[in-house]
Design goal:
Structural class: mainly beta
Number of strands: 31
Radius of gyration: 20 Å
Number of helices: 0
CATH topology: Methylamine Dehydrogenase, Chain H
Shape: globular
Number of domains: 1
Largest sheet: 5 strands, antiparallel
Helix content: under 10%
């Protein structure tokens, strides 16, 4: 199954406690996020990480190790593939990106949501959460062969992450409002953390030092902060909606230049937060919100909302560029959980330093891009076409789109192999 012992890593001493704060500001960021420092005399800070977590090699860019050319030697024999879980057809399609052809497909458990690289990068886990049922499972895929192994029965695995020290898999039991910490290989239960104030708990990212994680609560428009050392909920934060959001553009005609369109007064009082990613300097978190049409900017340590960036209709997935300077914001094209085919979806490219959108890529004829990841060389961004039953490949230099037909309702696909030392989960949150 490709599951090996956890790699030996350098140890560091954990930093101090976490302060909480409530909403006190406006939705305009107070200052732009920091880019990697310039000038030879700038001294890089040293991050004291939790014991067992690999050290932060560049505190000004925590994405330094997912750069082009940094695929680990242990992954050199892995197949170059795109793995697509199809929520409604209960299968995984395997695409050879070199030929743009589906080269394999196989049945997995009920309602496969995401394909998650393990902490040690040796297994790809399919999270089959069996919506509205109790027979959820995890299907391991060996990245050397691209073939699945025997599924492990696990309750409600909507999504999955890994603690930064690699000692636990975090199964996100969305319907249970619970985080189940399990052995990262056998998936035997270790302990759980209940988050009763977080209906629809689903996506997460981790502080630069590994002390805490912030999870999104899709159905209450809030975030929950988890102390990973003390194993407890630190607090909840209600997201503030912007004054305006985009109108739905409806069907986009082939050949039309894609723009987000006109705005209207936002009469929605509760957000629908989806993916969340930390900025390169570790100070700010960015939260995609399908109901707000953009990303909320969060001070992670203070747990306070400090800004908002409008990106497009139905903001959903977040992926940093290989150099850590930009973030690809995936806009699904609909405010609804079950949106239309050929919708107004696209990608907005946000500059981390200025927190401004610098490019927008549409899909000729319309589409519904969802979750995915970049190729190892950063040249392409692959995304599942949630309501159009295709996988999209965006050229990151031009925004041009190619498509491959897959199963019914593709969701959180992953691209393999990936550069990085270890995986924190989801569709490939590597550092």
């Amino acid at each position: 199954m490709g599951m090996t012992a956890r790699a030996t890593v350098a140890l560091a001493v954990a930093a101090g406690g976490v302060a909480l704060a409530v909403w006190v500001g406006t939705v305009r960021a107070q200052s732009p996020a920091s880019a990697p420092a310039s000038g030879a005399t700038a001294a890089a800070p040293v991050i004291a990480t939790v014991p067992g977590m690999p050290p932060v090699l560049d505190a000004r860019n925590l994405y330094s190790e997912i750069a082009v050319g940094k695929v680990l030697p242990a992954l050199q024999g892995d197949l170059e593939r795109v793995y697509v879980p199809n929520l409604q057809s209960d299968d995984v399609y395997v695409i050879d990106p070199a030929t743009m052809k589906v080269v394999d497909r196989y049945k997995v458990g009920d309602s496969p949501q995401h394909i998650v690289p393990s902490w040690d990068l040796r297994t790809l886990w399919v999270t089959n959460n069996a919506e509205r049922r109790t027979d959820g499972s995890l299907t391991p895929i060996d990245p050397r062969t691209g073939k699945p192994g025997k599924a492990i029965m696990v309750d409600d695995p909507y999504n999955m992450y890994f603690t930064p020290d690699g000692k636990s898999a975090i199964v996100v039991a969305e319907a249970r409002r619970r985080l189940d910490f399990r052995d990262p290989q056998s998936m035997a239960m270790q302990y759980s953390i209940d988050a009763p104030g977080c209906p629809g708990i689903n996506h997460a990212d981790f502080s630069i030092d590994g002390r805490f994680a912030i999870f999104t609560c899709e159905f209450s428009g809030t975030l929950v902060k988890i102390d990973l050392q003390q194993r407890k909920v630190l607090g909840y934060l209600k997201l503030q909606m912007p004054a305006n959001r985009f109108k739905s553009p409806g069907r986009i005609q082939p050949g039309k230049v894609w723009e987000p369109g006109e705005t209207e007064i936002c009469r929605v009082t509760k957000g629908m937060p989806q993916d969340i990613r930390i900025g390169p300097d570790g100070k700010r978190f960015y939260v995609a919100d399908m109901a707000a049409d953009g990303v909320h900017v969060i001070d992670g340590d203070a747990f306070q909302q400090i800004g908002f960036v409008a990106t497009g209709i139905g903001s959903h997935g977040l992926y940093p560029s290989r150099d850590g300077r930009q973030m690809y914001v995936i806009n699904r094209g609909s405010h609804d959980i079950h949106g239309p085919k050929n919708g107004g979806g696209g990608v907005a490219v946000m500059d981390f330093a200025t927190e401004q959108v610098v490019a927008r890529w549409g899909i000729p004829g319309g589409g519904s891009p969802d979750m995915g990841n970049l190729t190892a060389d950063g040249k392409y961004l692959w995304l599942g076409g949630r309501y159009d039953h295709v996988a999209y490949r965006f050229d990151t230099a031009t925004g041009a789109v190619a498509q491959v037909k897959v199963g019914v309702e593709p969701h959180g696909l992953t691209v393999w192999p990936q550069p990085g030392r270890y995986s924190l989960g989801h569709t490939g949150n590597l550092r």
